[in-house]
Amino acid sequence: METVWIIGGGRFGLRAAKYLLKQDKAFQVVLVDRDQKKLDQARELNCMTEWADGIAYLNIHLKSGNLPAWIVPALPVHLAWEWCRMQLGQKVLIPLDISSEIDGLLPNPMRGPEGNIYVSHADFICPAHCNEPHDTCTVTQQPQKLEMFKLLSQLRFKDFSSLVIQSHQLGPGVGGYGPGALFSLIERMEVQKDPFLLSTACRCHAVITGFNRKG
């Protein structure tokens, strides 16, 4: 049985839990949120719930030992970035505003209020049931473009180094990564001093955070 931590119990987190628990493959699902009302909505599901801030929960429990097979980010923040910053310290990882000059290198970029850049190969809202096909877009029926995680890993912008964590599809609209991917990020951050572009990306979409490491 594979354990999955879903960080965030909102609409996307609940949908992910419902999907995983309906599969023939046995998943042990742990749903984490600091809003008890959201956790109450998951009572009818056969999953564990944890009343906690998602980022803090990940920071405390993601240690060597009983690790989950998958982590599903379902919070309106860049979870990988927030975890790395909590691990290394907010005075060590400093967020940077990324110049708008980068926009011409990105597909359909949109900036969030927290300074992250959201990119997508789609200029439309993707259907929730999309299974992220390898060859053809579910909506347009056109050949798929270069996978976003590959595109961003090849991205060259000024003196930024590009770090990419790939989100693997566990089901339609459900993406996640293993703990090892997060540990690898920390290892790379500790040996490089350039400013970084940290991306979490699947085949079609991504969120990008710019930052620098001090010390």
Tell me what the structure shows.
The protein has 215 residues and is of the alpha/beta class. The chain has six helices and twelve strands. Strands 5, 6, 7, 8, 11 and 12 form a six-stranded mixed beta sheet that branches. Helix 3 packs across helix 4. The mean pLDDT is 91.
Structure summarized in a few sentences:
The chain contains six helices and twelve strands. It is α/β, with parallel strands linked by helices and 215 residues long.
Pick out its properties.
alpha/beta, four-stranded parallel β-sheet, globular, 215 residues, six-stranded mixed β-sheet
Explain the layout of strands and helices:
Layout: E1 2-7, H1 11-21, E2 27-33, H2 36-40, E3 48-51, H3 54-61, E4 70-73, H4 79-88, E5 93-95, E6 110-111, E7 117-120, H5 148-153, E8 161-166, E9 168-171, E10 174-176, H6 179-191, E11 196-201, E12 205-213
Parallel strand pairs: 1-2, 1-4, 2-3, 8-11
Antiparallel strand pairs: 5-12, 6-7, 7-12, 9-10, 11-12
What is the mean pLDDT? 91
Oligomeric state of the chains present here:
single chain
The run of helices and strands is EHEHEHEHEEEHEEEHEE
The main pleated sheet reads as: 6 strands, mixed
- Strand residues, percent: 25-35%
Structural class: alpha/beta
Distance between the termini: 41 Å
Rounded radius of gyration (Å): 17 Å
Q: Which stretches are poorly predicted, pLDDT < 50 over at least 5 residues?
A: none
The geometry reads as globular
Number of helices: 6
Overall helicity: 10-25%
The strand count comes to: 12
